[in-house]
Amino acid sequence: MREPQQERSRTTRRRLVEAAVECLATRGWHGTTVAMVAEQAGVSRGAAQHHFPTREDLVVAAVEQVGEVQLAELRRHVELLPNGASRSEAVAEMLLNLYTGPMFRAALQLWVAASTDPKLLAVLAPLEARVGREAHRVALELLGADESRPGVRETVQATLDLARGLGLANLLSDDTRRRRRIVRQWARMLEPALAGTLPERAGTR
Predict the structure, then answer these.
(1) What pTM was computed for the model?
(2) 3-state SS of 94-131?
(3) Minimal CA–CA distance to 205: which of 26, 30, 83, 28?
(4) pLDDT per residue over 158-204, tens digit each?
(5) Of the chain's two ends, which shows fewer C-beta atoms within 10 Å, N or C?
């Protein structure tokens, strides 16, 4: 039985986006072209340009994919998180590991390129702002934080900024051991800043 055309189209689009993320992570913005992504995805150049007429169109889809994968990974672990004070360290570990691996590497290549490419910046800046707002919202949810309390918004944003910095530190060498120590210390700092906002399971004290 032949695969329906709509499903084939979705499959082709997904393969192109995944290949774009991989190319960006390994070759950077200047080394990533629609033709190269098409070859990596195993589809024709014509099919690639049907889905993504320009490289910027492909980048938008790739950035959205990076953001969606990162946030979906966080949400998959929500039910496993403990409550009470120990939740701070578990969430801090999740958030501070968010910007590591090939997904972050691909995004970083685009940030660097956009800093000197006005056309790319015009496409990337609003998209990154949207992804950043969603990451902040999910972090608030995970921490059970009440953003109306003074300093909570800044504390959560500082956590995400620290995570990006740790992602940078991990680019050239494995920074896992140092990051573990930072996670423990940051969690201790989070607890008083978010005191009274962490959720508790029903029936627990």
Answers:
(1) 0.71
(2) HHHCCCCCHHHHHHHHHHHHHCCCHHHHHHHHHHHHHH
(3) 83
(4) 999 998 888 888 877 878 888 889 988 988 888 777 765 544 433 33
(5) N
Taking CA atoms, 193 is separated from 79, 85, 101, 182, in Å, by 23, 12, 29, 17
Q: Which amino acid is at 154?
A: E
Angle (CA) 141-146-151 rounded to 5° is 115
In a 13 Å sphere around the CA of 168, the CA atoms on its Cβ side amount to 10
In this structure, are residues 44 and 8 in contact, taking their beta carbons and an 8 Å threshold?
Answer: no
> What angle do the packed helices 5-27 and 55-76 form, to 10 degrees?
90
Q: Give alpha helix (H) positions in 42-175.
A: 45-51, 55-76, 86-96, 102-114, 118-143, 152-169
Exposure pattern of 155-187 as b/e (b: 16+ CB <10 Å)? bbeebbebbbebbeebeeeebeeebeebbeebb
- Distance from the first to the final alpha carbon of the chain: 57
Distance from C-alpha of 175 to C-alpha of 101, rounded to nearest angstrom: 12
Say how far apart CA 188 and CA 129 lie, in whole Å. 29
